[in-house]
Amino acid sequence: MARLVVMGGGVSGHTAATFAKKWLGNEHEVVVVTPNSQWNWIPSNIWVGVGEMKKEDVVFPLAGVYAKAGIDYRQAKAVSIHPNGSEKNEKAFITIEYTGQNKEGQTEEVTYDYLINATGPKLNFGATPGLDQGYTVSVCTADHAVHANEELQKVFEKAKTKKQKILIGTGHGMCTCQGAAFEYIFNIEHEAKKAGIRDNLDIKWISNESFLGDFGMGGMHLNVGGYTASSKIFAESLYSERKLEWVIGAHVNKVEAGKVYYELLDGTMGEEEFDFAMLIPPFAGVGLKAFNKNGEDITADIFAPNGFMKVDANYNAGAYENWKASDWPRTLQNPTYQNIFAVGIAFAPPHPISKPMSSPNGTQIFPTPPRTGMPSAMMGKAVAHSIVDMIRGASQPTHTACMSEMGAACVASAGKGFFTGTAAAMTVYPVVPDFEKYPGVGRDISMTTGEIGLAGHWIKHLLHFAFIWKAKLKPGWTLIPE
Amino acid sequence: MAAKHMEHIQPYSPQAGTMIPTKFRKFLRTCVIWQFIRFIAINIKMTLLILKSHH
Ligand SMILES: Cc1cc2nc3c(=O)[nH]c(=O)nc-3n(C[C@H](O)[C@H](O)[C@H](O)COP(=O)(O)OP(=O)(O)OC[C@H]3O[C@@H](n4cnc5c(N)ncnc54)[C@H](O)[C@@H]3O)c2cc1C
User: Fold this and answer.
1) How far is the CA of A140 from the centre of ligand 1 (A)?
2) Quick check: is B43 in a domain?
3) Which residue among A355, A369, A377, A447 is least enclosed by CB atoms within 10 Å?
4) Percent of chain A predicted with pLDDT > 90
């Protein structure tokens, strides 16, 4: 009997664990180690953050689902990986520290034959002075979103009688996840209009993108109306239409009560006051350590300096001009330990997708690469497939999920409402541009499209129910695509 | 007096350099019949994308 251990029960880890268990049956063991007792459909946190959904609508308890699936669930966080075992333990293992199941604080060694790292991001609020002081809010977790809405409602209340200023965007020069902030600013604008207070709100965007619509993917060219036009044009159009001002190419370097300080790509410094601000923090790896049999630290062999796990990517691509689609990992297997894989946000990308830029002062200001839900889940499923095949005798991974060979469907909400809502429904193929295969804009323009409308909102809302249904392993769950 | 056919946009501002949707384009965004057609079209597009992405 082989044992697969999955660290992280989010989008990619939950997908990997549930498919692996379905395919392996009771012959083999699947263990999930994850610190939360609840699964969160993160994209709908945006609607929690504006009061259109409650926390209970976007989370559900994991224990019952894993019990039903026959998955061994440990409510704990992984702390370290010991790929060669230790002096006392012959087998490869991870150490975990319980956060629930009445074992809080207890540590344990969990042996594995195969290991998947799906631990997602550490929300690195500490990277920007003041960002961790509660002057600003976040929507990255369901609890953050609940708090964001409480603060937002206070500002909406004040806006009934006097002008208020709202600032939404990224809280550091090296952030990703601009898409989430994009959704939040448009949802706030939509709610403000509904509440009749729009005229009393100044709503401003601040981000590290060098142009609006970069989204950490170097932007995208959309095939619309007989033209192949940059996402910059569509983003600027939408921000203008909804009367949202923007500051771009900004590294937020300090946050105080009611004020952010920033540096721009041209080296100038600026500041913005706010009554309410939601700034996405930069992401890092969750800080897992690795040790060899003698207990020596081998973290740097397995993890990149940013804490994300090394996989089969080309980490020596060098300057932007040399980047190739083939730099991106395909099997997501760790090059040193062939029984370890990393999926979703947890794998170390070879380099950004957007062009790296710095200010004349040497401050790096550019988006780091996003790994959104669909690619993350597809990686989880592909790796689960490979591991199942390897357990059954394959000598190497049999499935691939490469961000320069897969597309992404992104539906960015711009306001909720069955008849009044809108969302930008975009398809992009591939996620990482491949200028050799698709000369010109690096993407298949017949597959890279976008439009805003009510249909996008219906799809977004449908996806909310579909993905929660799927994650709960309800009848037909395998038929719902990633 | 000229008819107010669209909202004022400050010349030479960043906003003035962008595309501005027409009233008809804005109407289509929440026109239920048109959006139902788009709903089907977008779903087909996304299905094709998913099929192309699976290896
Ligand atoms: C507000 C917001 C809105 C978004 N909207 C969209 C959207 O509309 N569409 C889209 O495609 N993507 C969206 N995304 C991105 C999407 O949520 C991510 O791509 C996706 O969650 C990544 O999956 P993951 O499995 O890598 O990480 P996660 O889903 O974050 O899962 C990581 C898991 O690991 C656990 N973990 C952390 N540390 C440890 C540890 N030490 N040991 C064990 N487990 C650990 C965490 O608790 C978590 O359960 C959004 C993100 C945010 C923040």
Assistant:
1) 8
2) yes
3) A355
4) 98
User: Is residue B9 in a domain?
Assistant: no
pLDDT per residue as tens digits for the range B8-54: 888 998 888 899 899 999 999 999 999 999 999 999 999 999 888 87
Residue range A73-99, pLDDT digits in tens = 999 999 999 999 999 999 999 999 999
**B46 contacts on A by Cβ (under 8 Å):** 409, 425, 427, 459
- CB contacts of B15 in chain A (<8 Å) are 236, 239-240
pLDDT in tens, A309-333: 999 999 999 999 999 999 999 999 9
Q: Which fold has domain A3-123+283-359+369-391?
A: FAD/NAD(P)-binding domain (3.50.50)
**Cβ A383 vs Cβ A343: under 8 Å:** yes
Is B7 among the domain residues? no
Q: Among A186, A454, A482, which would you mutate to test the B interface (most chain B Cβ atoms within 10 Å of its Cβ)? A: A454
Structural domain total, chain B: 1
CA distance A232 to A211: 6
- Does B4 have pLDDT greater than 70? no
Measured between CA atoms, how close is A375 to chain B, in angstroms?
9
Average pLDDT over residues A147-162: 98
ipTM, interface predicted TM-score of the complex: 0.91
Instruction: Write the pLDDT tens digit of every residue in A335-369.
Output: 999 999 999 999 999 999 999 999 999 999 999 99
Q: Both tokens of residue A291?
A: 């040790």
Contact present, A19 and A384 (Cβ < 8 Å): yes
Q: Is A76 in the pocket of ligand 1 (CB under 6 A)?
A: no
Does position A25 have pLDDT exceeding 80, yes or no?
Answer: yes
Q: What proportion of chain A, given as a percentage, has pLDDT over 70?
A: 100
Per-residue 3-state assignment (H helix, E strand, C coil) for A58-86: HEEEHHHHHHHHCCEEEEEEEEEEECCCC
Instruction: Assess if residue B38 is contained within a domain.
Output: yes
